[in-house]
Amino acid sequence: MKKVGELLVKVQYGVSVAAALVLLVMIGYEVFARYVLKSSLMGIEELMLFPIIWLYMLGGANASYEKSHIECGILTLYVKKERSKRIFEAVKRTLCVIILAWLCYWGFFFCSYSFKTWKLADITFAPLFFANAALTVGFVLMLIYAARDVIAAYGSLIKDLKDKGKSEERGEKA
Fold first, then answer.
1. CA-CA to 159 of 20 to 30 Å: which in 1, 50, 93, 124?
2. Whole-angstrom distance, CA of residue 87 vs CA of residue 98
3. In this structure, is the dihedral angle defined by the CA atoms of residues 2, 158, 97 and 79, taken in order, positive or negative?
4. pLDDT tier at 118 (50, 70, 90 boundaries)?
């Protein structure tokens, strides 16, 4: 299972690097065409949306993997007990999984709708399905990493409760 996770992260990073390079080439070509050739390339901005959306969603998945999302941890400043912090973490992670599962459901719905209708971009006629698929892939990756975090949070909470039970059996204060 760990090797599958490592492969998933490597593919995620590879697609992110590829999207960033494609975007870099597109921007470079647009600048060259506009300022050196004095011409405009119609639709390049529309095509840039595809790697931008993929980078955005894979960046969110990467932040979920690394647990580096921006958080406003005000409540954790007031919680002093370690067990209370673990309970709060487990509840927070559970809510995250519930919300991501809901977003994945709608992402799959949106992706299947996009595939059925096969809408095209206005200028380049590129299929919008490829941009819409990025939403679903990003949410699924975030859900996988959130499920990992839920398992870890509840594992830590259960370990804490077991340790408290053992110390109470010995007559110690926890």
1. 1
2. 17
3. negative
4. very high
User: Within a 10 A sphere around the Cβ of 96, how many other Cβ atoms?
Assistant: 20
In a domain, 174, yes or no: no
pLDDT tens, residue by residue, 11-60 = 999 999 999 999 999 999 999 999 999 888 888 999 999 999 999 999 99
The token duo for 159 is 């370990």
- 148: Cβ–Cβ under 8 A, 6 or more apart, which residues? 5
Q: How far apart are CA 150 and CA 89, in angstroms?
A: 9
Q: How confident is the model at residue 174 (pLDDT cuts 50, 70, 90)?
A: very low
Boundaries of domain holding 86: 2-169
Residue 126 included in any domain? yes
Runs of H (alpha helix) within the chain:
2-31, 44-66, 74-78, 82-117, 129-169
Contact 61, 138 (CB under 8 A): yes
* Cβ-based neighbour number of residue 19 at 10 Å: 21
Total number of domains constituting the chain: 1
**Can you name the residues that pair with 127 across neighbouring β-strands?**
120
Measured CA to CA, the distance from residue 141 to residue 20 in angstroms comes to 19
Quote the Cα angle for 106-88-135, to 5°: 20
